[in-house]
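Whether sequence alone determines local backbone shape is best considered at the level of individual chains. When preparing material for the folding task, we compiled for one chain both its residues and its backbone structure tokens. The sequence in question and its structure tokens are set out directly beneath this paragraph.
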Amino acid sequence: MALKIRLARLGGKKKPYYRLVVADSQAKRDGRFIAIVGHYDPKSNPYKLDVDHDAVSKWIGQGALPTDTVASLIRASRRRQAATA
């Protein structure tokens, strides 16, 4: 079973809200997932991004691969976290 860390879309029409989830690569975009590791709201200004870095590291250690978009969001979250610390 190949695992991916990817976005699952929530929210209404023209009001997207995303969860960062760990899911089987064969599962549908908004279908079954294994764990929620964060939330992303692109419509707020500035955008809201909440990532559980411990959970992400755990899942990557177990072989889950983040998609390109999720990888960039994780990097942005780590940069924000380092800037505030």
Q: What stands out?
A: The helical segments are 53-61, 68-84. Residues 10 and 17 are 5 Å apart (CA to CA). The chain is about 30% helix and 40% strand.
